[in-house]
Amino acid sequence: MADYRETEVAKQLHIERKVLFKIKQAGLISPSRTEQHGTMEYCFYDDEAITTLWLIVRYREFGYSYDDISKLLNGPAGSRNQMLHDLLIRLDHLTKLARIIYETGLLPPDFMKMKDIMDAAYFKQFDDPKTIKRGEQMINKILNDPDYNNSCSDIKKLYAEGYSKSSPEIQQAVAEAEQVIEKYASKESARNVLRLLGDLFNGDGNIQETTELGSDWIKEIGAAYQYYCKEKA
């Protein structure tokens, strides 16, 4: 079985060597073998150890502490396979979360840790299609609001007059669009909805056909939204 030096392992896992050192220090893994060259000790890891390291790194990304991971690794026989199975479920949840955010503009509460977001309990609230439907209805109400469409018309006219997306005039019109969105979404999530619309307008989505403006200047309006959100971040 091949084994690899610590520097190679860190490169494979896209982590810094100090992260690998912390994992060793936490007692989560030991080198498959070591070699002594003078005062220097070189650590080597085989394929099995690298697989375990990969799992540890992924679980850390999901917000698990080293203590949490230690309990999982030292659990019943075959726990590593169980960890991999659970991780695949969490990755599936992450994909679902991305879809929910994209379709509704709804974000998890800021105080939630990633590992809690990935737990099945969080997703029970999204099992009902009504949640997605509610998000779609919110977007449709915004797009059909006369004040919102007036703000879009203002942006369109300003572009036609030669103003750029970063001009104070266009950015003020975007701010007015955000105020309209706040009628349908909370103040906290209005910016996320504006960002969502910017991505859809300036992307490949068919949402262009749902506005009163048609496709005229819609990508430019999306670009103005994106610039506004970036500047306000």
UniProtKB/TrEMBL annotation:
Tell me the Gene3D superfamilies matching this sequence. 1.10.1660.10
Task: Please give the name of this protein.
Answer: MerR family transcriptional regulator
Q: Which residues belong to any copy of the HTH merR-type domain?
A: 4-74
Any single GO molecular-function term of the entry would be:
DNA binding
- Which GO biological process annotations does it have? regulation of DNA-templated transcription
Please name the SUPFAM superfamilies in this protein's record: Putative DNA-binding domain
One Pfam short name: MerR_1
Give the matching InterPro entries: DNA-bd_dom_put_sf, MerR-type_HTH_dom
| The organism's place on the tree of life at top rank | Bacteria
